[in-house]
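R.M. (postdoc): so does anyone remember the format we settled on? I'll just put the structure tokens first.
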């Protein structure tokens, strides 16, 4: 317990000392900052543990400190259909892997055991640039089925028609440009999910997405996939 608290305090100090990406120069225009009518800040009261433990995701106000273990998800209390989502994230180690799921049905979360991810929903990937180097070092071969700048894709039983450019196997919307920052830096994701279509902006530029998503309503899920990560400034605005 003392070790977990010390880790959380140390990470919190780093987070508070680091400038928000929203305060940094952005050559592509203003970032969506989540201000204005209808926007709601989410914190620990708005999420429920699915198949992690009490160390998987520790909340300090609106900052979520993720250990990455066990593999799994923490879901929102509410289900959402049409919405805008803002979330900032920072990997804490080289080759970190995580993401946020949207439109995850309840059936994919019921009795989900530790070390498994939901078999449905749309994943908006958060992957450190070092993951590519690690994948190749561990024997992976090109062409790569993933990128590290904001892939969007359907998971398991869900379906989506991805926007171009596509991954080599055609299953993912690959980002149209490289926008993500590496571990130790904050990234800003803005997601617009309306009537079965999801679009992702990475650090101020739209890069990927898809249409014809099924299902197109469900939970938001913060992913734990083995590596420590921070989430902050999670804001949502529900739309008609």
């Amino acid at each position: 317990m003392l070790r977990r608290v010390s880790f959380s305090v140390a990470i919190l100090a780093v987070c508070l000392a680091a400038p928000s990406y929203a305060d940094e120069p952005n050559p592509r225009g203003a970032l969506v900052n989540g201000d204005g009518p209808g926007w709601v800040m989410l914190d620990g009261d708005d999420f429920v543990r699915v198949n992690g433990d009490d160390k998987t995701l520790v909340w300090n106000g609106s900052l979520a400190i993720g250990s990455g273990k066990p593999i799994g998800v923490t879901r929102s209390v509410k289900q959402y259909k049409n919405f805008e989502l803002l979330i900032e994230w920072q990997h804490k180690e080289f080759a970190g892997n995580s993401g946020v799921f949207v439109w995850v049905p309840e059936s994919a979360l019921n009795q989900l055991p530790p070390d498994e991810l939901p078999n449905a929903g749309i994943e908006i990937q958060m992957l450190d640039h070092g993951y590519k180097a690690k994948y190749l070092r561990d024997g992976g071969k090109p062409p790569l089925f993933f990128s590290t700048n904001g892939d969007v894709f359907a998971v398991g039983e869900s379906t989506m028609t991805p926007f171009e450019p596509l991954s080599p196997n055609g299953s993912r919307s690959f980002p149209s440009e490289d926008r993500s920052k590496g571990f130790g830096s904050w990234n800003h994701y803005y997601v617009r999910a309306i009537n079965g279509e999801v679009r992702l902006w990475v650090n101020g530029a739209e890069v990927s997405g898809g249409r014809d998503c099924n299902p197109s309503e469900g939970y938001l899920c913060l992913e734990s996939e083995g590596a420590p990560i921070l989430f902050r400034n999670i804001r949502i605005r529900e739309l008609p």
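R.M.: ...and that's the designed sequence above, right after the tokens. Also worth knowing: The chain has two helices and 16 strands. The chain has one domain: 2-238.
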